[in-house]
Write a structure and sequence with these properties.
The protein has 405 residues and is of the alpha/beta class. 38% of the residues lie in helices and 15% in strands. It binds pyridoxal-5'-phosphate (PLP).
């Protein structure tokens, strides 16, 4: 191709790293198989325990705070245009207070309000060099893998399997600059202990690595001895960024609000990662709506916490029931006790998709094949506790009757 001066020019190019992504068929294939089965069996009453979306609505405190904020936006005196750079002070103070209750002291200027954990988990990669090696658990939430493939970084996988309860630990062979940890874990529901996270923090500080800690499900932890923030671990402020979200905690999957903590003590190559992230966000992100931030603030109020904890208990009843059923049936599983996910082993001879089909056809129950979360998920299956109590109970009865385990 020639430019206007007649000089030979190269053609425009695309980011070819995108061609290295595996097609993401997991949830579309699930939807297609359920659709086909339903049209062949129109009387079948399907119970969905697949997708990890919440089912309970926003709580009363959140709705009323957002209604009030909406009214304010229609008044000259209270109208808000562009908001504060890192999120409104009222919400960052509320998040700071939430951390204080966990015995973690974070400054409000280390907190960044976002439209959810997914965007921040993906966008944070902007502040890291492309030559870093990234360590990602297998299986895990697929966004970590795909975003690094898009950027062209080298990925090493950390194996999760039954023997380590799907919680990989650092070993002598591991050479990584960026480490993803997800606890409580999606899809396995497994939770790292303080001792295990201490090993990770020590590894990261010793090896100049940065941990990207995804605590999107922290509110589901019931065991008071388990950590709900990486900053409960000594030394974490010099090696970890934490991502959290109100999606699952407070039913914000459609409302969109989360927060990311980048401590001032976190430096690499002598530069503050908090300052790089601030620069990145102020350049590429214009904030979360005032109305949504007001709703989020209400989540952290005393009444808001009572309401969201009630909803979490509702989901955890489902998790307990699923766990009890699997125990009765002698099925290996992890999760459930401190997470809204149950990760179970398929019966001998069945792979993840075969179990999916069997559950669908013999119990009319939909779950998620574990193979969709990484190769080590093959032969495993995820059930979600985000459904309705009665339907979950019915699903368990059907699974028992179907005698597939
Ligand atoms: N992190 C994990 C582990 C998740 O499972 C999810 C959503 O399912 C997210 C982050 C994304 O959360 P958000 O809705 O805040 O973007």
């Amino acid at each position: 191709m020639l430019d206007i001066k007649g000089v030979k020019n190269k053609t425009m190019t695309i980011n070819k790293n995108y061609l290295n992504l595996k097609d993401s068929y997991l949830f579309s294939t699930i939807a297609k198989r359920v659709r086909e089965y339903s049209s062949e069996n129109p009387t079948a009453k399907i119970i969905r325990m697949g997708i990890g979306d919440v089912t309970l609505p926003l709580t009363a405190s959140v709705v009323s705070a957002m209604a009030k904020a909406t009214a304010e936006m229609g008044e000259v005196a209270n109208f808000k245009g562009y908001g504060d750079e890192q999120g409104y002070g009222f919400l960052r103070d509320a998040v700071k207070g939430y951390y204080s209750q966990k015995s973690v002291e974070i400054n409000a200027d280390e907190i960044f309000i976002s439209d959810g954990a997914k965007s921040d988990i993906a966008n944070v990669l902007d502040i890291f060099g492309l030559d870093n090696t990234v360590a990602i658990p297998n299986p895990v939430y697929p966004v970590y893998v795909d975003t690094n493939i898009m950027a062209g970084r080298k990925i090493v996988y950390m194996d999760g399997f039954e023997a380590n309860n799907f919680l990989p630990m650092p070993d002598k062979k591991l050479k990584a600059d960026i480490i993803y940890l997800c606890s409580p874990n999606n899809p396995t529901g497994a939770v790292y202990t303080k001792e295990q996270l201490t090993e990770w923090v020590d590894y990261a500080n010793k090896n100049n690595a940065v941990i990207l800690f995804d605590s999107a499900y922290e509110a589901f932890v019931q065991d008071k001895n388990l950590p709900t923030s990486i900053y409960q671990i000594k030394g974490a402020k010099t090696c970890a960024i934490e991502f959290c979200s109100l999606s699952k905690t407070a039913g914000f999957t459609g409302t969109r609000c989360g927060y990311t903590v980048v401590p001032k003590d976190l430096e690499r190559e002598g530069k503050s990662l908090r300052n790089l992230w601030l620069r990145r966000q102020t350049t590429k992100f214009n904030g979360v709506p005032y109305i949504v931030q007001k709703g989020a603030e209400a989540v952290f109020s005393a009444q808001g916490q009572i309401e969201v904890n009630k909803n979490i208990s509702y989901y955890m009843q489902n998790a307990s029931l699923i766990a009890a059923t699997l125990k009765d049936l002698g099925v290996w599983f992890c999760g459930a006790a401190n997470a809204p996910y149950i990760w179970l082993k398929a019966p001998k001879g069945l792979d993840s998709w075969q179990l999916f089909d069997k559950l669908l056809t013999s119990a009319n129950v939909v779950g998620t094949p574990g193979s969709g979360f990484g190769s080590n998920g093959e032969g495993y299956f995820r059930l979600s506790a985000f459904g309705n109590n009665e339907l979950t109970a019915e699903a368990m009865e059907r699974i028992k009757k179907a005698k597939m385990f």
